[in-house]
Every structure is written in C-alpha cells, then in structure tokens.
Write a structure and sequence with these properties.
- By secondary structure, this protein is α/β, with parallel strands linked by helices.
- The protein folds into 2 domains: 233 residues, Aldehyde Dehydrogenase, Chain A, domain 1, CATH 3.40.605; 195 residues, 3-Layer(aba) Sandwich (Aldehyde Dehydrogenase, Chain A, domain 2), CATH 3.40.309.
- Helix content is 39%, strand content 19%.
- Helix 1 packs antiparallel against helix 3, helix 3 packs antiparallel against helix 4 and helix 4 runs parallel beside helix 5.
- The mean pLDDT is 97.
- Belongs to the aldehyde dehydrogenase family.
- Its EC number is 1.2.1.3.
- It is an enzyme of class 1 (oxidoreductase).
Length: 510
C-alpha cells in the first residue's frame, strides 16, 4: 500500500490543465464540483452548461454538420489525423489527468490516451474507404449501388471509467463520416473532457475552416443528457453507462425513431478448463478482475474453474489478491487505485454482505484507509468462492469482486456463463482446440466479445466493441462500426434507352 507525496493534487491538476490549454474560467467558479477519487478532495468547480446553452449548442452542431458533410471524406480524415498528432503530443499530461480524475493507475491513464491516438489513425485511414457496394441489376443497361451519407449531429454520453476514450471511439468515426459531435461527459470527470476539447480545438485551428460548433462539449447532470436524447436535431445518441440508464434512454430515442448505440452492463465471465496454461491464466485473471479497480464494463466478475484445477488455481489467486499493491495510482508500484466514490464502495460492501449470506467464502474486500486521506475509498479486491450462481452473482456490481465457481462439464459451464442478463465480454482458457472452437461457436458464448487465452478486458480498437442482451447491442470503434454513423441509400442508374421493370412487371401505357 502506497500514497504519493508529490505536489498538492489540486495544484497538479491546475498545472496539467494549463499545459493542456484549458483556461482557468473553464474549471473555476462553477457549481459542478469535481473531486479526485485519490484523496476525495475537491479539485475544481466547473460551470455547468445551461439548458438554453445546450439548445444553442445542438442547433449550432446541426448547422456545422450541414457544412461539414460537403467536405470530402479524405479531407475530413486529415482533421482526425491532426487530432491524433495533438493527442500524441499531449499524451503524458492527459494520461496523468485521467489518472487523477478517474483513479486509474498511470499506465492505464496513458493507455487510454494511446487508445484515442490509435482510433484517430484507424479513422483517418477509414476516410478513404467509407463506401458501398456495386450490386448486379437484373435489368439490362442498369447499374445498382449503395452510397453512404452522414446522419447529422451525433450525441455522445460517456461514463467516468473511460472518461475520454469513449468520446474518441465515437467522435473520430462520426467526424470522418461527415457528422458533428455533441459530447456530454460524466459529471464525475469533466476536466479530462475540457482538456480533450482544448486538444481538438488546436487540431481544428491547424486544419483551418472547421465549422463553428462541429465538436461541442456540454457539462452537467442527467438533464443535459435528456436534451440530447429528446432533440429532433440529434439523429443518433451513443450512450455508455448502466443498464438502468439504457432503459431510460432507449425508449425516448425509439419514440422519435432516432438511432441508439448503447454500451451498458457487463457481468463478464471466464472459463478455466483442465488444459489451461495456468501461469498465463493467472496473469489474465488478475488484470481483468482487478484492473481499474474492477470498474471497467469488461471487468472479469465471474470465474468458472474446472474441478481438476480448482485447488491449484484458486490458492494462487488468493495469494495475489492478498499481496497486490493498493494505493495512489500515480505511484509506479500501485496496481489497484481507488473506487470512484463512496457510493461505489457501499455497493461493493452490500454485494459482499449478500454473498456471505449465500454461504460464500470471501478473501479481501475490506476498505484500506490512509490516515491522511480519509475521504478516499481504497479497497482490497475481493475473491468470492461460492457454490452456485446466486442472484448477487448474476447482478453486476461495479467493483473489484470476482465470484469463483467450480464446474465439472464444459456444457454446464457454458450454460452458467450464459445465464445472466448481460452479454458483453467473455473468455475461455484452454489448449484444447475443440473447447476453444465450441466456446466461439453459436452454441458457446453469447457475448459480443469472446476470447481464447486472454482476459475479458483490454479490447483493441480494430474490432467492433459492444455486447448483447442487457449490454445494449451497440458497437463502437473498429470493424464496420462506422456504418452506424451514416445512412445508406440504394441507387439504381438506367444508362439505356429502354425502361424494363424489375420482376418482369409490365406496365404499358401505349
């Protein structure tokens, strides 16, 4: 356990924001009080975006879209390339700010910014590839094809645990596709959003001629998000958060026939088979379950271990859980930082209490207090051995709790794996090709992400990210996720002198 004895954290935040180009008035004198989970202390007071200013930003973004859509896609890609360059230059400062505001260890904070840089590279290349198919027509002297067009002003609602990367997944693709972007970050992490906005503005200035309001930032609570969700000028909202949030957002979008990209809950599981490479498996489990203090949507929450390796694997995990360094995430030796706030801590303790009532044996889970920072919520990650998948196991608790269950037959393990409401990420650890292929097949994992011999956490930007069931069904980042930010038109061109009708229809008017 460690604590950092560096510059006072509030002074460090101000220095970082200054280096990143954020003016003092953007984070002082407002009523949106920002705390760091590292100490619990107040570090900024950001002004909230008013309802009228939100409406103006949406209208301006729509106006910017009308202009931006006429810019050729490869040219739009040049803006995103410049954004990647600016992010690369700001990586040390923005990564550290992510650590301070969200509580991630420093390598994870830097990794999040690297993810932003990576998606900019992906999107810049994509700008020369967004296009449709040429399709065979059944009519002579006809050509049929698909064209793809921008949608409009895209709303992005992001969560505290990935305070900037989620914006970049959406914004880089949306902007390349010809849209404007309106961002409502978590009220728990507005400073990293302010810094990202300043970085974007530098890229826009280098690009030149970017329409005003093309990328807007709105700070505030749920009421700001509600304006995005209900505005007829916002044809798509990408929302990351809880399943409860998704249940509130989705019907409102559906009521006006708007599109939704929902990234919601994830009660992720891994299966450890008899042939698993246990050295590799232990390392993968440790990061997936304890990384970001268990506050990733892809965090490993359930571990299904074959009875033949249970007594070998679980003691190793207990040793790691007892010794992992919990403390100030800015310190090099720390692997587990703080929970975001007291509410997260209370939810974790409530879940552990229920697991005890269900007969579980718990290793860890207790609060770790530092005398000099009583307002922070550091916890020892919890390893919970439990006989069956009870209701609390099926419920996602956003904290470092790993439920461990024993199984005998792979068929039963897959059934338990799939019998939860969520369907985001999953893994199997095996050297048996049949088991691996079965897990990846239609009768295996029912998640949007299914891995073999790696953990559930740490997805790359090249693949589409998202899940099924109560995870929401949305997809962001790589692959063909760009199509969600565009509308498709099917075009048929007649370059002949006759007018044959499809399906042999005859309509002779003489």
């Amino acid at each position: 356990m460690t604590t950092s004895a560096t510059t006072p954290i509030k002074d460090e935040v101000r220095a970082l924001l200054t280096q990143l180009g954020v003016p003092p008035q953007a984070y002082s004198g407002g009523d949106l009080i920002v705390h760091t989970p590292i100490t619990g202390e107040e570090i900024a007071q950001a002004p909230r975006t008013t309802a009228s200013a939100t409406a103006e930003a949406i209208a301006q973004a729509h106006k910017a879209y009308l202009e931006w859509r006429t810019v050729p896609a490869p040219k739009r890609g040049e803006l995103i390339r410049l954004l990647g360059d600016e992010l690369r230059a700001a990586l040390p400062q923005l990564g550290r700010l992510v650590t301070i505001e969200a509580g991630k260890i420093l390598s994870e904070g830097l990794g999040e910014v690297q993810e932003m840089i990576d998606i900019c590279g992906f999107a810049a290349g994509l700008s020369r590839q967004v296009g449709g198919l040429t399709l065979p027509s059944e009519r002579p002297s006809h050509r049929m094809m698909e064209t793809w067009h921008p949608l409009g002003a895209i709303g992005v609602i992001s969560a505290f645990n990935f305070p900037v990367a989620v914006w970049s997944w959406n914004a880089a693709l949306a902007l390349v596709c010809g849209n404007a972007v309106i961002w409502k970050p978590s009220e728990k992490t507005p400073l990293t959003a302010l810094a990202t906005q300043a970085i974007f503005q530098r890229a826009a200035a280098k690009f030149g001629g970017v329409p005003e309001g093309l990328a807007a930032l709105l700070l505030g609570d749920v009421s700001v998000g509600e304006q995005l969700v209900t505005s007829p000028l916002v044809p798509l909202v990408s929302a990351t958060g809880s399943t409860a949030m998704g249940r509130a957002v989705a019907p409102r979008l559906a009521a006006r026939f708007a599109r939704a990209i929902l990234e919601l809950g994830g009660n992720n599981a891994a299966i450890v088979t008899p042939t698993a490479d246990l050295h590799l498996t232990v390392r993968a489990i440790a990061f997936s379950a304890m990384g970001t203090a268990g506050q990733r949507c892809t965090s490993l929450r359930r571990l299904l271990v074959h009875e033949s390796v249970y007594d070998t694997l679980v003691p190793q995990l207990k040793k790691i859980y007892a010794s992992v360094v919990v403390g100030d995430p800015r310190d090099a030796g720390t692997l587990v930082g703080p929970l975001i706030d007291e509410r997260a801590f209370n939810a974790m303790q409530k879940a552990l209490e229920q697991a005890r009532r269900d007969g579980a044996e718990i290793t860890g889970g207790e609060r770790i207090s530092f005398a000099e920072i009583p307002q922070a919520f550091f916890v020892r990650p919890a390893l919970v051995e439990i006989a069956t998948q009870t209701d609390i196991v099926r419920h996602e608790t956003f904290a470092p709790i790993l439920y461990v269950l024993k199984y005998r037959e792979l068929e039963d393990a897959i059934a338990v794996h799939n019998s939860v409401p969520q369907g985001l990420s999953s893994s199997i650890f095996t050297l048996n090709v049949r088991e691996a292929e079965r897990f990846l097949s239609a009768t295996g994992s029912d998640c949007g992400i299914a891995n073999v011999n790696i953990g559930t956490s740490g997805a790359e930007i090249g693949g589409a990210f998202g899940g099924e069931k109560e995870t929401g069904g949305g997809r962001e980042s790589g692959s063909d996720a760009w199509k969600q930010y565009m509308r498709r038109a099917t075009n048929t061109i007649n370059y002949g002198t006759e007018l044959p009708l499809a399906q042999g229809v005859s309509f002779d008017i003489g």
